[in-house]
Amino acid sequence: MNHVTTSDGVKLYVKDWGHGRPVVMAHGWPLSADTFDDLSLALADAGIRAVSDDRRGFGRSDQRWTGYDYDSWQSFLKEFFGMGPTASPVSSEVVNWACSMAMQAGLKPTLACAPAFATTDFRPDLAPTRWRHHCVADRG
Q: pTM value?
């Protein structure tokens, strides 16, 4: 299996398919890089490099006791399945597939992630002058 080691010694499982300009994909809680197999195959077939990993504590990556906060995760994206009241839900087959991936996650990481999801304030990470300029330019 392919792994990379983070600066704090955590081994992350990585899928790296294809060649060319890379597209990096980050899965949502509590899935794994397998979430992107269909997209990764299509990208690789189109001459694009598809890179995805199992976030720490999930899938085939190390399950450490600590480090389940946004500062420890890379290119984090919230990938959920449109199960809200205004979205179109995915098929039951996709939900079952996601559940089988979620079962690979460790109990400690799964529980430890929830507070970070609920309480992390990203406002300090935003560059106010950049956003202000973008919003003014969009008013046209």
A: 0.55
